[in-house]
């Protein structure tokens, strides 16, 4: 009986961790280039709204999912303009982007609150779903979850085994040396900002197209901030990001189930569990790593002509 209860919880863990994973991978790409983007929360909710509206009016959730990614690019481009063109403070720009994105989505989305749109539903992969234990957990999910089984590997390969990915890492570690080697720091950082924004937008779209199929204001509920913290926990590595996203997804799923079960614990205490874990993870990561694994030039602006 206990095992029968654990499997649905673990399956929900994978689903709850998926939007965080998309956003975390996007932030890893961005930060690897030396740009700190604290606007993940705002970009995610813009992607969530764009995906929902596109699905509602086109009836095509696949198209809506892709358009949500481009909406994330558009939102992230604001951060690029401020930081790369006008040399603005990256921390302030990211915080402002979160406020702007959240307010923009809530303003435009208020008329859609409670409405539904076509989305993605679970699809059991034949044969694989019958694998004892892992089958019902990993292979009875929606197609957007299945994508995340491959995307971290592809991003790892891109960053560590391709010329362009090595260039992204170079401008994040030592932009002056990268420029001396003939690389355009500005162009590489622009690519990382837009590529990262695309994945952040996908993370938001997952919430409106697969996780709920509904629109509610403040849908992201702090997941963007968790993604920022998770990058540190993952030491800027896509593989570790998978573990971290599922860890946070498990805590979120657990607190929802505890509330549904009528536990005597105060609901406010349960709601704070994911964020309490965020603090614990950051402390643990700082203690474990000793020397920071962050890109050496993270947060350092370079002139637009470089």
Describe the structure.
A two-stranded antiparallel ribbon has the order 1-2. It is globular, with a radius of gyration of 19 Å. Helix 2 runs parallel beside helix 4 and helix 2 crosses helix 10. With 306 residues, it is mainly alpha-helical. It contains 14 helices and two strands, in the order ααααβαβααααααααα. It has one domain: ABC transporter involved in vitamin B12 uptake, BtuC, CATH 1.10.3470. The termini are far apart. 71% of the residues lie in helices and 1% in strands. The model has no long low-confidence stretch (mean pLDDT 90).
Structural class: mainly alpha
Mean pLDDT: 90
Spell out the helices and strands N to C: HHHHEHEHHHHHHHHH
| Rg from Cα | 19 Å
How far apart the termini lie comes to 62 Å
Number of helices: 14
Compact description:
The chain is mainly alpha-helical and 306 residues long.
List keywords for this structure.
mainly alpha, ABC transporter involved in vitamin B12 uptake, BtuC, 2 strands, about 70% helix, globular
């Amino acid at each position: 009986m206990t095992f029968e209860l654990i499997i649905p919880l673990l399956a929900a863990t994978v689903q709850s961790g998926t939007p965080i994973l998309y956003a975390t991978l996007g932030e890893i790409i961005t930060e690897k280039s030396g740009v700190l983007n604290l606007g993940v929360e705002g970009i995610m909710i813009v992607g969530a709204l764009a995906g929902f509206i596109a699905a509602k009016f086109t009836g095509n959730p696949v198209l809506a999912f892709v358009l949500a990614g481009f909406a994330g690019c558009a939102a992230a481009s604001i951060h690029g303009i401020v930081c790369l063109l006008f040399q603005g403070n990256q921390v302030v720009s990211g915080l402002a982007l979160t406020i702007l994105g959240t307010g923009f989505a809530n303003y435009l989305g208020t008329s859609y609150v409670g409405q539904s749109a076509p989305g993605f539903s679970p699809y059991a992969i034949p044969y694989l779903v019958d694998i004892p234990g892992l089958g019902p957990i990993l292979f009875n999910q929606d197609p957007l979850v299945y994508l995340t089984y491959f995307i971290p590997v592809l991003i790892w390969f891109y960053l560590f085994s391709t010329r362009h990915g090595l260039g992204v890492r170079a401008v994040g570690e030592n932009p002056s040396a990268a420029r001396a080697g003939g690389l355009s720091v500005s162009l590489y950082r622009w690519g990382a900002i837009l590529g990262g924004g695309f994945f952040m937008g996908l993370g938001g779209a997952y919430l409106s197209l697969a996780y709920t199929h509904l629109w509610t204001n403040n849908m992201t509920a702090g997941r963007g901030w968790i993604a920022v913290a998770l990058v540190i926990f993952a030491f800027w590595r896509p593989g570790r990001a998978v573990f971290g996203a599922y860890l946070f997804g498990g805590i979120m799923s657990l607190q929802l189930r505890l509330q549904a079960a009528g536990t005597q614990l105060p609901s406010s205490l349960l709601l704070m569990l994911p964020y309490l874990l965020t603090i614990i993870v950051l402390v643990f990561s700082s203690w474990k790593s000793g020397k920071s694994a962050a890109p050496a030039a993270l947060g350092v602006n370079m002139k637009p002509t470089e």
